[in-house]
Amino acid sequence: MYALDDVNDLLSKLPSNFDVSNPVVRYLGAIFAELAYYHVPQWEVDDRRRALLVPCDAHQDLVRSAASTDVQALIRQAEISEARVFILEDRGVIVVGVLVRRVLFMGFRGTQFLFDWPINLRSSKIRLQRRFVSAKLHKGFATEAMRISAKIRQQLSSLKNGDFDHVLLSGHSLGGAVAAISALLLPFRFPHVITMGAPRYGNWAAYINPCNPISAQVRRAGDGVPTVPPRWLGYADHPLEVFTNGRDYRDPLAYSGLTGSLFRWIGFLARRVRPHSMECYRKEMGIAAGAPAAHSDLAPYERLSSYHLEQPPPQAKTLVTVVYLQAGEAARWEFKDRITKLTFVEAQSRYVRPDPDHPEWACFAIFASQMPSDDYIQRVADDLGVKILRIEPD
Questions:
Q1: Within-domain flag for 314
Q2: What is the CATH number of the domain that holds 236?
């Protein structure tokens, strides 16, 4: 039995007064937030070395084993009756939406792109002026929220307001920060928000919105992510924080003060950020909700075994792809570095085969035993503002 098999029973226990203070509501939010990690697009598989950055065991196994998981099939297999499912992808965020029993659940997760230090360290803030809100938000998270919210708006055009009575946005880690900011941008009346182990994403005004209920942040004491960015940069803690069992969150005495904060981070890193794991959050929240399968995996997937890890990689011939592009020197070198990190082999920045009609075009030869997809190469270029002119297999 898998945790997803509990959903029908949990839906039948939803209170008429739908509220994030209810453990069943919080646990359903955790389930759909974790479900978003099970959708793995091909461009994340192409960049499988970065899978370890994403704090979900199932996601890491799926990426490294190049396994394909159909989220809609998992919903059908769990026999969640009359569920309408949609999946939205963007460079930094993936959203899995499930409309069932007049509740619209949307689980957010960060992609490997969002778990990138240049984005997370972009701690400057931008101002959001909307309705009664004048908030300052983390620029990196807000940018990704704006991008994915535009796609959610398009998806909502296929739904009617009468199709659902409640909306629950949930997300873990960076996905939680994006979910909370998206709630400020989307045209919902009184959406509910559950975040789990999310970083701080704005000043005090970002959390207090007279048009939206206050979101609930679920925390584990050993998790260091909710303590960044630091308060001295103008960021505020979530006003409503609870432990996974639903009790009001208070830092244990061992983690109080500057010394305690340092002690927390030493332990956090020593445990390889395990206290931040999506599975740890979801399982503990499921126990609090009384779910029978809370200890189980969320859904079936091809788990990496010791056999997989011990087998030598198959010998494959080296492939070559030549990319022609227009870009400044700095952007060309950044493009080369990104591709080199992905292929683990080499990206030669030289005129190996210059275009006879355009000798000024920069030319990269990518050598790898497993070539990244053209779509991934294009995504890297778009992110850097580089114009791809042509991609040719050698």
A1: no
A2: 3.40.50
